[in-house]
Amino acid sequence: TIWELSNGVIVWLKPTEFQNDEILFSSYSFGGHSLVADEDFVAASTSVTVVLEGGVGEFSQIELEKKLAGKVASVTPWIGELQEGMRGRASPEDLETMFQLLFAYFTAPRADAEAFQGLVTRYRGFVENRNARPEMAYSDTISLTMANYHMRVAPWSLERVDKMNLERSIAVYQDRFADAGDFRFFFVGNFSLEQMKPLITNWLGGLPSIGREET
After folding, report:
1. Is residue 162 scored above 90 in pLDDT?
2. Which of 81, 85, 110, 114 can pair with 54 through a Cys bridge, CB separation 3.0 to 4.6 Å?
3. Bigger pLDDT: 149 or 93?
4. Are the beta carbons of 40 and 87 closer than 8 angstroms?
């Protein structure tokens, strides 16, 4: 079943009986960090990680985990080179919680300076450990040569970590999810169309749409 909402969102739904306690969804929109300027590439490529570390709305990531304790519902945004989107899962009992999370990750990413500094520290440790492995020098050389030394495929270094930026990451993330009108959503699992209709109308139909056309 395919529904097109007034804000441009298109939804594919397929009820299944493979798992009686599971509902899955995925979504995508064209664009990704291919549309971001080179100077913002590091901020763009780390933006989802920054958001996931910071939480959503009024909840830090730790507070969000506590809020979701005992519930079977999760949503993970992503931004790739050519697309951005979200994926998630829920039990039938916690389906609305999944939609609430989806809506929050679209509309209310949270900038958490303390969590960001902790993330930068972990990246520094990752780079130091990575660069101590001789096999990485080999694979990095091949990748750079194949890409004609383009900066977007440059290996992680401490200089690259220094280019991480909380404000720019949040700004890129908000821009990539500012227009739900060209998003496509796919739902499969143990649900009925009657059950899904008010949830989709409310939470997906309420997502922002500004009429962008991107490739």
Report:
1. yes
2. 110
3. 93
4. no
